[in-house]
Each structure stands twice: as structure tokens, then as C-alpha cells.
Amino acid sequence: MNIYLLSWVLAVLSLIGMWNVGKYRLWAWIYLGVLEILWTFYGIMTKQYGFILLTVGYITIYVINYRRWKQNQSKE
User: Fold this and answer.
1) How do the pLDDT tens digits run along the chain, 76 residues long?
2) Which of 17, 46, 65, 67 could pair with 32 as two cysteines, CB 3.0-4.6 Å apart?
3) pLDDT at position 72, please?
4) What is the model's pLDDT at position 75?
5) pLDDT of 73
6) pLDDT on residue 2
7) What DSSP designation does 23 have?
8) Rounded to an integer, what distance in angstroms lies between the CA atom of residue 24 and that of residue 76?
9) What dihedral angle (degrees, nearest 10) is formed by the CA atoms of 37, 39, 40, 41?
10) Domains of the chain by residue range
11) DSSP assignment, residue 26?
12) CA pair distance 29, 13, nearest whole angstrom
């Protein structure tokens, strides 16, 4: 797959993940976390090392939000 096409595919998949978060689907946080790992590889392959820092930040946010949502679901 062309590396630039990969960025488009990952972007669309990320938007789908965010849409599912908006629909209050807990699994969407895990889905987005996996996508961030793919974005990390994309950043390494294209030598855009800022992506690595960005993905670490996103994964941290996704883990925090996943835990928060899971706690809220167990209280209900």
C-alpha cells in the first residue's frame, strides 16, 4: 500500500472511531488505541517523529477515558 494512501485510510478509520465514541460505545476507545499504534508506525516510516509524541498523548487520553467510562458503566 502506498504510504500516503495509508494516511488517508488511517484518518478515515480514526474518524469512524471518534464517531463511535460519540455514540457512547466503550469498545471505541480500544479501537482508537490500536489505531494510534498504527499511526506510530506511520510516523516512523515517514520520519515524522512528532506523530510518536502525539500518539503517546492520544493513547494516554484514550486509556483514561476508557477507565472513566468503564467505572461509570459499573455504577449504573
Assistant:
1) 788 899 999 999 999 999 999 998 989 999 999 999 999 999 999 999 998 999 999 999 999 999 998 888 877 6
2) 17
3) 84
4) 75
5) 80
6) 86
7) T
8) 14
9) 100
10) 27-76
11) T
12) 13
Residue 58 carries which side chain, given as an amino acid letter? Y
Tell whether the torsion through CA atoms of 28, 34, 37 and 42 is positive or negative.
negative
Amino acid at 12: V
Sign of the CA dihedral running 38, 44, 48, 50: positive
Which residues neighbour 60 within 8 Å (Cβ) at sequence distance 6 or greater? none
Going by the DSSP 8-state scheme, the letter that residue 49 receives in this structure is T
- Residue type present at position 76: E
DSSP 29-52: HHHHHHHHHHHHHHHHHTT-THHH
